[in-house]
Specification:
Length: 332
């Protein structure tokens, strides 16, 4: 399976370099602010005319084909469902939706500029059944729009793909003092023998695969209204029900409302895209699997990429009750 990426080899772009890049290729004078990112470098850009953008610059370790995947997915969504609240691509002065950046200091990278979507992160919003239902319906609609998408890199091996979950056993070996290591090891063994064969025969398509509370934006004046879905960097061709499981995790705010949040999100998703009996039967294992995935990958990055900042805010207490939920889901 694909393994996590360590940040090695080239210097990151400075905010000044990002500003210069946008001025040179897009003819826009902006002020840049660095955002977090697991693999890409991301910058929020503001200009004096009230327009905001996001500049995404791929890792030098990422092939051009993979770097172009999310660009192609955004173009596809603009054509298939223009009303979806997703970022829109900007074109360079040469009329291109992506540019190539090459230097000795920064390596060879692909970059693109897109619109910055306004709104409040779901992560910091007040949760409600209406909001959970709106998220479920939107994810199903997004899946519909992506169903016909094809790309040379869409079937890549990705560590964040739940079909690749058994491969986390080798990642666990590189994580010192992994919390609840005994449960996680046992879970991964059971998943490999019991769930993976069933998952392999379920319907598949290209999906967002990262519909979490930091990639969903809501209207501050009406937090049940979703205003944006961002970050297609982990989009992949996988089991459709895996996308639902990932979406469920984004709805989990407190242990007290977890069961209701899961029910409301899945119910609303099913209104738009009915799920099969087998998909619903396997879903608790996939929700638990995503929790395990998050714990292992967060721990791995903290050990190997401590300066990235991408996983800040996820402390032991954040994962403790989620791991308890995972254990309950697979013991039911």
């Amino acid at each position: 399976m694909a393994t996590p990426a360590k940040r090695v080899g080239h210097q990151p772009l400075s905010t000044a370099a990002a500003e210069s890049l946008v001025r040179e290729h897009y003819g826009i004078a902006v002020r840049a602010e660095r955002l977090t990112g697991e693999r890409d470098e991301n910058f929020r850009l503001r200009n004096d005319h009230g327009a905001d953008y996001v500049l995404k610059v791929s890792s030098p370790a990422e092939s051009g084909e993979i770097a172009s995947l999310q660009i192609a997915a955004l173009r596809h969504l603009e054509l298939t469902d223009p009303a979806l609240p997703c970022p829109r691509l900007a074109r360079s002065k040469a009329g291109q939706v992506q540019i190539r950046v090459t230097s000795t200091e920064h390596g060879a990278r692909t970059a693109f500029l897109c619109s910055f979507l306004p709104g409040r992160l779901l992560f910091g919003s007040t949760r409600s059944p209406e909001q959970q239902a709106a998220c479920g319906r939107l994810l199903a609609r997004l899946g519909h729009a992506l169903r016909s998408f094809e790309h040379a890199a869409s079937r890549r091996e990705l560590v964040w793909d739940l079909r690749q979950l058994p491969g986390l056993r080798q990642v666990c070996a590189e994580v010192p003092e992994l919390m609840h290591a005994q449960f996680i090891a046992g879970f991964l063994e059971r998943f490999a023998s019991k769930i993976s064969p069933r998952l392999s025969v379920l319907r598949r398509q290209f999906v967002h695969n990262d519909f979490n509370a930091r990639n969903i934006l809501v209207d501050p004046a009406d937090e049940a209204r979703i205003t944006g879905v961002i970050d297609f960097g982990d989009a992949v061709h996988t089991a459709l029900i895996a996308d639902v499981a990932v979406g469920v995790i984004g709805q989990l705010a407190t242990p007290e409302n977890a069961d209701d949040a899961i029910h409301e999100f899945v119910r609303a998703y099913g209104e738009v895209e009915p799920l099969t009996t087998e998909e619903l039967t396997i879903l608790p294992w996939l929700i638990a699997g995503r929790i395990v995935q998050n714990v292992v990958m967060t721990s791995w990055h903290r050990a190997h990429n401590p300066s990235s900042g991408h996983f800040d805010g996820f402390d032991a207490s954040y994962f403790e009750w989620r791991l308890a939920l995972a254990q309950r889901l697979v013991s039911a």
